Amino acid sequence: MIRVLLADDQVLVRAGFRALLDAQPDIEVAGEAADGQEAVALVRETSPDLVLMDIRMPVLDGLAATRRLTGDPRLAAVKVVMLTTFELDEYVFEALRSGASGFLVKDTEPEELVRAVRAVVGGDALLSPGVTRRLIEEFAARSKQPAAAEELARLTEREREVMALVGLGLSNEEIARRLVVSPLTAKTHVSRTMVKLGARDRAQLVVLAYESGLVRPGWLG
C-alpha cells in the first residue's frame, strides 16, 4: 500500500483528497495535518511514503515544513509533492529547491492526482508536463546566478548530457529517443548521475542542472 499524508489548512480540500485516495486499492491516507508543524510531527510519527503539502499554511508554511522533512536523514524515503492554488505560484521553484519531488495545482483532475501519487512514490518526479517546464524556466530565471559546480566534474560527458535533458523536463523515454538508446539505459544514466551528485530525486537534479549553469532558462527543446 502507498501511504499518503495530507497537509492542508482547508478541511474540504483534505476531505476531497482523502475520499479520492482511499477509494484506490493501492493507496491509503495515513493522516491529516492542518499546518506545517503538525505535518512534520505526523510524518515523523507515521512515516508515510508521500506527503501532499500545501504551500500556504498557518504556524509553519509548506516550504519550511518541506525543508525540515527533506533535511532529516531518517525521513529520506518520504517524498513531498507541493499543492498550489495557481499554476504560476511564486514559490514553486523554491519548493523544488527545498527538496519537493514536484507539485500539483489543487484543481487537478482526479485521475491525474492518483497517477501523480503513484509516479512519485515509484521514483519519478512531476517535471515532465509542458506547464511544469515553463514554470521551471520562469523561476530559474529569477534564481541566483549559476556558480561553478565542481560536482559536475564527477560526471562523464554522457551523464552531463543526460542531466541537461532532465533539466529540460524530459522523461526517460524522451531522453532515450533523443540519444537513440534504450529507456533502461537512459534510466541507468539518470540514476548514476543522481548518485554521483547526491541528488535526493529527479526534481533535485533539475534544480542542480539550472544552478550549476548546465542548463540555462530558455533552453527548452
From TrEMBL:
The keyword Transcription regulation applies. CDD domains: LuxR_C_like (cd06170), REC_NarL-like (cd17535). It comes from the Bacteria. Keywords: DNA-binding, Phosphoprotein, Transcription, Transcription regulation. SMART domains: HTH_LUXR (SM00421), REC (SM00448). The modification 4-aspartylphosphate is found at residue 54. It comes from Streptomyces tubbatahanensis. PROSITE patterns: HTH_LUXR_2, RESPONSE_REGULATORY. Residues 3-121 form the Response regulatory domain. The keyword Protein biosynthesis does not apply. Residues 148-213 form the HTH luxR-type domain. This is Response regulator transcription factor.
